[in-house]
Specification:
Layout (H helix, E strand, L loop, with lengths): L1 E5 L2 E4 L4 E8 L4 E10 L6 E6 L5 E3 L7 E6 L4 E6 L8 E12 L5 E7 L3 E6 L1
Parallel strand pairs: 2-11
Antiparallel strand pairs: 1-3, 3-8, 4-5, 4-9, 5-6, 7-8, 9-10, 9-11
């Protein structure tokens, strides 16, 4: 199983970016998917997550500015980042709760992480 992120970059304050994260490999089902971020010298924190039926949850610091969505047919989760601030500068990681079945039919649950994509917001 692999998660591949894209869409990061350098943007001025007030600008927008759209991050994408596509899951591939042996996947039977994906439950919740989410985005985390880690700024230099800080712990990784949850930005937003979304369940398989579309229920969303956001960190207070991004409510009203960021929007998480997913395309279940493409095993892809998105994060639209609007009204970006310099304090949003961080490496953004996607995360997914994945279920697959072994050849013998045994279900296996794992939580996969992407490699991270850098978002830099200049003032």
């Amino acid at each position: 199983v692999q998660l591949v992120e894209s869409g990061g970059g350098l943007v001025q304050a007030g600008g927008s970016l759209r991050l994408s994260c596509a899951a591939s490999g042996r996947i039977s089902r994906i439950d919740d998917m989410g985005w985390y971020r880690q700024a230099p010298g800080k712990q990784r924190e949850l930005v937003a997550d979304i369940t398989s039926d579309g229920s969303t949850n956001y960190a207070d610091s991004v409510k009203g500015r960021f929007t998480i969505s997913r395309d279940n047919a493409k095993n892809t989760v998105y994060l639209q980042l609007n009204s970006l601030k310099p304090e949003d500068t961080a490496v953004f990681y996607c995360n997914a709760a994945i279920i697959y079945y072994t050849d013998s039919g045994t279900p296996v649950a794992l939580r996969a992480w992407g490699q991270g994509t850098q978002v830099t917001v200049s003032s």
